[in-house]
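Checklist before submission:
- one chain only
- standard amino acids only
- sequence pasted in full

Submission:
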Amino acid sequence: MSDPTADATFLTRNVVEALPAGALAERMRSASREGRQLRVKLGLDPTAPDLHLGHTVVLQKLREFQDRGHRVVLIVGDYTARVGDPSGRSQTRPALSGAEIDANADTYRRQAHKVLSADDDLLEVRRNSEWLDMPMEELFALARTTTVAQILERSDFARRFSASAPISILELLYPLMQGYDSVAVAADVELGGTDQTFNLMLGRDVQRAYGMPEQSVLTVPILTGIDGQQKMSKSLGNHVGLTEEPEEMYGRILSLPDAAMADWFAQLGVAPPPAGTGPRETKRLLARALVARLHDPAAAAEAEAHFDRVFVAREAPVEMPVHVVGAGEDLVHLPGLVAEAFGRSRSEARRLITAGGVRIDGNQVTSLDVGRDQLDGVVLQVGKRAFRRLELG
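Returned file contents:
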């Protein structure tokens, strides 16, 4: 490990807030004196199966801690997800089933490895069900650490309370549960988006109530989605998923409005282009860099070539996945075929067909049924970038 003060200065660049002032440098000096790593915490609730580029803003900051020899503690919030983070919400979040949460949680470590080092000395992955599945007496002790007045200081709770909108007791427990995570893993530092500031600072209060040193808090900016307006979110459809295929990832990044590019370069840590580079090539540079980071340079080059073939030369891809059309009636119901071939729901497939978003060999589909004998060897296309070559089984 190098000089703690210099490291703290480097690690707090590009963050929105480092709270309290000077706390990170002091924690780093303390860890240096004790000859140990900092324990740097990030909690992610598995409310969806995929992480997206917005998550990599904070993951990259964690990687910087790892590169300086510190240990990242990634908490997959399989228990906090059962409550649902109320941050920024105007109503109670819909509950997910335990099976859905567990399935999502299983994917998070693999996806986080796209950014974080997997070295066991530098990464610890935990589920907060390990300690939040607690006896009632321990829950009482946790509840005593905070007052209702403190919880209602949160802007989203305050708005809902003043508007007489429902706030469940379970939601009020969420910040306490997240704070107890910091106790359970003995966090020195916690990172999160700017929408998490209240929760992160409450974690300090909970640690203090349990007689522990209080964590330093770093907040990072929230990445705007490819619509250039709202924060990146899978529920809004403006995300770029970490597990997306290179061609899909490249194409979605190119749909980013020009005005949002500067923020993406800065927040995602991509080296800006030389002065005088035009917007079109700047956006291509951004797309290539991000696909190369999350896949590899060869995949980025092929994704760009794929884009040029399909959208510049207007040709179908040379290679594409094959979908076998099973035996059945002479007429094939297209919503079912699209759903099977592309992993969509039948209702979504029907909407895509009705909206003109499905093509066969480049021709827009206008009917919900097509003769089975017309499908052998054709190219089925959904949207701009998803293709399947059909074969009859």
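Reviewer check: Residues 248 and 386 are 8 Å apart (CA to CA).
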